[in-house]
Amino acid sequence: MRPSLDLLSARQRELLEAVAKGTTSSKELAREFGIAPKTIDNLLSNAAKILGVGDRKSASARYIELRQISPEPSPVRRDDLAEDAAVGSPEGTGATREATSIVRKLLHLPPLGGEEHPIRAEEVTARILHVALLAMLTLVALVMFVLAFLKTFENLQ
């Protein structure tokens, strides 16, 4: 009987297997799975509670032990889909996730959920105002161009 394994989501199982293979850093797991490090921490913490242990390494060891005792896969729970959607994971599993991870690395994209930025609120405000000013100048230039274009048509008639 495997009541603990049935309570784990598919994502938690994948993370526990990755930890068992030696990847324990939240940042490394986040890059590999394409989700935020904080989400990794939450998923592994909840998995540890479900398995009745205190940390991710112990949870991983317990998961492997329970899986070896009864290796048949547990049924997919409806919550698995909701959890994956909640952490912002539009990718599928396996090859699709790997391909998405490679694209994110090539484009230097942050994990889903974003990353914490080490900038102060004043800098964020200044950057927003800068973008707003550029957008306004672009809009003014576009309006002037359209007006000049219409004036040219007016002179031709």
N/C terminus separation: 87 Å
**Structural class determined from secondary elements:** mainly alpha
Rounded to an integer in angstroms, the radius of gyration calculated over CA atoms is: 25 Å
Strand proportion: under 5%
Number of strands: 0
- Poorly predicted runs are 74-92
Count of individual helical segments: 8
What does this structure look like?
The chain is mainly alpha-helical. It folds into two domains: 3-107, no CATH class; 117-157. 71% of the residues lie in helices and 0% in strands. It contains eight helices and no strands. The chain has helices at residues 3-7, 10-20, 26-33, 37-51, 56-69, 78-86, 95-107, 121-156. Helix 2 packs across helix 4 (37-51), helix 2 crosses helix 5 (56-69) and helix 3 crosses helix 4 (37-51). The longest helix has 36 residues, at 121-156. Residues 74-92 have low confidence and may be disordered.
Task: Write a brief structural summary.
By secondary structure, the protein is an all-alpha fold.
List keywords for this structure.
157 residues, mainly alpha, 8 helices, 71% helix
What's the SSE blueprint?
Layout: H1 3-7, H2 10-20, H3 26-33, H4 37-51, H5 56-69, H6 78-86, H7 95-107, H8 121-156
